[in-house]
Automatic annotation (TrEMBL):
<keyword id="KW-0804">Transcription</keyword>
<dbReference type="Pfam" id="PF00126">
    <property type="entry name" value="HTH_1"/>
</dbReference>
<keyword id="KW-0805">Transcription regulation</keyword>
<feature type="domain" description="HTH lysR-type">
    <location>
        <begin position="6"/>
        <end position="63"/>
    </location>
</feature>
<dbReference type="InterPro" id="IPR005119">
    <property type="entry name" value="LysR_subst-bd"/>
</dbReference>
<keyword id="KW-0238">DNA-binding</keyword>
<dbReference type="InterPro" id="IPR058163">
    <property type="entry name" value="LysR-type_TF_proteobact-type"/>
</dbReference>
<protein>
    <submittedName>
        <fullName>LysR family transcriptional regulator</fullName>
    </submittedName>
</protein>
<dbReference type="GO" id="GO:0006351">
    <property type="term" value="P:DNA-templated transcription"/>
</dbReference>
<dbReference type="InterPro" id="IPR036388">
    <property type="entry name" value="WH-like_DNA-bd_sf"/>
</dbReference>
<dbReference type="InterPro" id="IPR036390">
    <property type="entry name" value="WH_DNA-bd_sf"/>
</dbReference>
<dbReference type="GO" id="GO:0043565">
    <property type="term" value="F:sequence-specific DNA binding"/>
</dbReference>
<dbReference type="InterPro" id="IPR000847">
    <property type="entry name" value="LysR_HTH_N"/>
</dbReference>
<dbReference type="Pfam" id="PF03466">
    <property type="entry name" value="LysR_substrate"/>
</dbReference>
<dbReference type="GO" id="GO:0003700">
    <property type="term" value="F:DNA-binding transcription factor activity"/>
</dbReference>
<comment type="similarity">
    <text>Belongs to the LysR transcriptional regulatory family.</text>
</comment>
């Protein structure tokens, strides 16, 4: 069997069909005819000496060999698209695009933009909101994420700082008559965010409290909504320390029980193994700011 790789066109036709499981849809995406896609896949099967698809109603389904190849082509084509996009934008002098959660963007990053411009005057940065649990989309050079190792092999991950979480509340929500112990939380309304359901259980286990003892008064879809609820006195929120630094400094919130370190890390995720030098410059600045 020849060790020469199949043609790029054949692999592209296969990859698109593997994602759509429909040759007509694949042909539309590739702007070619149904027959052209069929010929490319047939050529690929002949070169590999194995079937990659089986008929399934009006579409197709992957054979076991096809599924193995699709796992590779999807990863490789995704990396190619991201790298080519990055090179095009670098050639045009495009800014470095950083994605991060809306709460981190609003509560930590934006207040420090002037400091970043002062410390890194040559780094042109564009910030965009990005979900932590979704793949890095095309056009984004890196994302900031709270996540627990191990890291995926298809990303370059630069660890920046440990995640520290703790209960925060408005000062008037904690009466002077209540003792300032972890058990006091059993008597207060608690708030949680659906994006981090593990936060309260993690904190409870370190405080020798059983998570089932706590009563959640209200859940919020986004962490930022939960913190706004805490600021108006609806209950006690569990939050990363980085996001409430300014609220604690001004006294709008208090953290009488302190913060604990979790297994998660705040890290800078790059979508491929080829590192943009601007990412290292940004990572160095973030590490200094997060670990004063």
């Amino acid at each position: 069997m020849s060790s020469v790789l199949p043609s790029l066109n054949a692999l592209r036709a296969f990859d698109t069909t593997a994602r759509t499981l429909n040759m007509t849809a694949a042909a539309e995406q590739l702007h070619v005819t149904h027959g052209a896609v069929s010929r490319q896949i047939r050529l690929l099967e002949e070169q590999l000496e194995t079937r990659l698809f089986e008929r399934a109603g009006r579409g197709v389904r992957l054979t076991s060999a096809g599924a193995r190849l699709a796992a590779t082509t999807q990863q490789v084509f995704s990396q190619l698209e991201q790298t080519c996009d990055q090179l095009r934008r670098e050639a045009k002098g495009a800014p470095f695009v950083l994605g991060c959660s809306g709460s981190f963007l609003a509560r930590w990053f934006i207040p420090r933009l002037d400091q970043l411009k002062h410390d890194c005057p040559g780094l042109e940065l564009h910030l965009t909101a990005a979900d932590e649990d979704k793949p890095i989309r095309t056009g984004v050079d890196a994302t900031l994420r709270f996540a627990t190792p191990p890291w995926p092999d298809d990303h370059q991950v630069i660890s920046l700082a440990p995640e520290r979480i703790g209960p925060v509340l408005r000062p008037d929500l904690l009466p002077d008559t209540l003792p300032c112990t972890p058990a006091t939380l059993l008597r207060l309304p608690l708030l949680e965010t659906l994006s981090r359901p593990q936060a309260w259980p993690q904190w409870c286990r370190q405080q020798k409290l059983h998570p089932r003892q706590l009563s959640i008064a209200q859940s919020f879809e986004h962490l930022n909504y939960m913190l706004e609820a805490a600021l108006v006195g609806l209950g006690v929120a569990i939050a990363p320390a980085y996001l409430v630094e300014e609220d604690l400094r001004t006294g709008r919130l208090i953290a009488p029980w302190g913060f604990i370190e979790t297994d998660a890390r705040l890290s800078l995720w790059l979508p491929d193994r080829v590192q943009d030098p601007r990412a290292r410059q940004l990572a160095d600045w973030l590490q200094r700011m997060l670990n004063p």
